[in-house]
Amino acid sequence: MPRNVLVVYKKNFEEVHDRSLENIRITLDKLVRLDEINVGYTARETVGRSDFIDPDLVIVLGGDGTLTSIAHSVDEHTPIMGVNSHPRSLDENGSYGFYMGSDPSNFSSDIELVLNDEAIINILPRLQAEIITTSGNRIKCDPALNDLLVANTHQYQPSKYRIQRGSIDATQYSSGILFSTFQGQGAWFRHIANIEGMKFPFDEISNHYLCVARDLPRLDRLDDGTYWDWTSDSTIITSDMHRGFVVSDGWDETHFTRGASITVSINGPPLRLLTFRENISDRTKQWIEN
After folding, report:
1. pLDDT average, residue stretch 217-237
2. Collapsed DSSP state (helix, strand, coil) of residue 96
3. What is the SS3 assignment for 225?
4. Which of 79, 144, 183, 197 could bridge 272 with an S-S bond, Cβ 3.0-4.6 Å?
5. Nearest to 9 by CA among 94, 81, 109
6. Who's near 121: CB < 8 A, 6+ residues apart?
7. Distance CA 114, CA 154 (A)
8. Mind listing the pLDDT tens digit for each residue in 11-62?
9. Rounded distance, CA 39 to CA 4, Å?
């Protein structure tokens, strides 16, 4: 049973989020008085990696953006519980909350399931890039739950690189390479690559990933894995850019220079995401092969 709980909340001075935080706090205060848990609260804007050392449960109050922005700091052993502070089901301007298994109206019963070890545990794979600089330094980038971009820091200039994956060995000029986990494909990938109607084997969704070379010249958009691919093999990118970066889930940037080697794989530390009424895979069943 989790004992030390950290609540990370979205703070943008909108009443709907403040009201949700107050509802969550009332429920947790009762559990604190019963000496069942210890609770700490931190705004997303001020949270740091050191805040995640002691908690054995992280509760994220907000939307998917809030969760992906702090999930980088959560290790593979600590469960994370998403609570949608502004559900779209109650307001068309709210958050869809793909990763948010709970909401303020269900939180009281859902947290009891967590404390009784009865929540659904989804083990979600994450992408990770490792940069080897020209001087031999190794830098591991933040793991990505949705997507990871490798590109020129100056987006108006082409990304020039060598790409190697399996039998693939090619030189490309594109707008960078976008990588996506299976569950993250709806966030950005499907707006770039036309994979509508494609379904994926269930036994591959935890060990394969998607990748696409953005804005690759039309004559180079071949169906041989150089343009886009669904693969379990690592991708090795050798930079021919003066300056490039790796961006995980649209948040932190890790920079590299010409000659650096970037290896991207689906072998990042997985995330233990809690849900309560369905598995995450149930939300993507339209993309899963029967």
Report:
1. 96
2. coil
3. coil
4. 79
5. 81
6. 79, 272, 273, 274
7. 45
8. 766 788 888 999 999 999 999 988 888 999 999 888 888 889 889 999 999 9
9. 6
CATH, residue 70:
3.40.50.10330
Domain shared by 97 and 153, yes or no? no
* Residue 49 lies in domain: 4-118
Same domain as 131, residue 111: no
Provide the percentage of residues in the chain whose pLDDT is more than 70.
98
Q: Which long-range contacts (CB under 8 A, 24 or more apart) does 83-91 make?
A: 83/20, 83/24, 83/59, 83/107, 85/9, 85/10, 85/16, 85/17, 85/20, 85/21, 85/61, 86/14, 86/16, 86/17, 86/20, 91/16
Burial class (CB in 10 A: 0-12, 13-18, 19+), 68: buried
Strands 138-140 vs 38-43: parallel, antiparallel or unpaired:
unpaired
